[in-house]
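[Archive record]
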Amino acid sequence: MPKCLSFLFLPFFLLFSAGAVANAKCQQEIEGARKIAKALSERRLQETAWVYGFANPAFPTLIKVGWTKDVESRRLQLSGAAVPSEFTVIAKARVPLPTRVEKILHCIYADVRVSPGKEFFRLPQKEFSTLLDRLNSQPIEKVIDILVEESKR
């Protein structure tokens, strides 16, 4: 079982309760997000932060996918002395449950991940930007529905 999913142990019937999802590894993350969203919405405690995609001319085919509370600070932090060029923001979306959304994105794009444990993916920038535009400022239920749809591609 992948490390990002090892903390989730859901009954089998939950695996397909949201419909068949092409990427079965992401299903547990999605169901976990639904459970957390329901609990939080009942208490109205959904904090939001940014899920982002950064590009760097030194790595023209890669996108860094992550989450942060401050996009510009994170961009500057990653653009430090270890890379030859500064990162640019290609997309960002304010989402509830940002750590969970980030994990689901990493699962969805696992087959184009450059290296295990790294957050760099070989993705078309336009495609990723369009996805984050759709996620931006949506309630968690809509975010999950969009991610389910994306996982079927």
User: Anything to note?
Assistant: The chain has one domain: 20-151. The CA atoms of residues 61 and 124 lie 8 Å apart.
